[in-house]
Amino acid sequence: xxxxxxxxxxxxxGVAIFNPGYKTFKELFELAKLIREDKNFSxxxxxxxxxxxxxxxxxxxxxxxxxxxxxxxxxxxxLECVVYIVNSPIExxxxxxxxxxLPNRKICSTMKGAYHLLNLPISYDTxxxxxxx
Length: 133
Fold this sequence. Notes:
The chain has 133 residues and is of the alpha/beta class. The chain has one domain: 2-Layer Sandwich (Transcription Regulator spoIIAA). It has a 5-stranded mixed beta sheet with strand order 1-2-4-6-7, with helices on both faces. A two-stranded parallel ribbon has the order 3-5. Helix 1 runs parallel beside helix 2.
């Protein structure tokens, strides 16, 4: 697997991290589905998705498939804030298109920015330690 995720049910926090490099639509879809099928998914209120260093080539139809997956699990979705960390202009544009359709989605380029956007009741040092999955 070229990605990892971890859910911290007590903190209502989820972390998803992709290793840098080219990512296929299948990998993006696979991780999104895996997280939603996790027994603790409904406990996540705040989530970070680290896509720094990733490149992907998506088509509009693929966005539709991802959105359909999100809507399929909406009864389990208690997400109040999802922050995508991305540091490439093209991938940022892709995420902006995706986020237009979904509430509570934000984009930033740094871990510190993600910490501030999520507004979790933990210190930044604790946050950084949780991100290492």
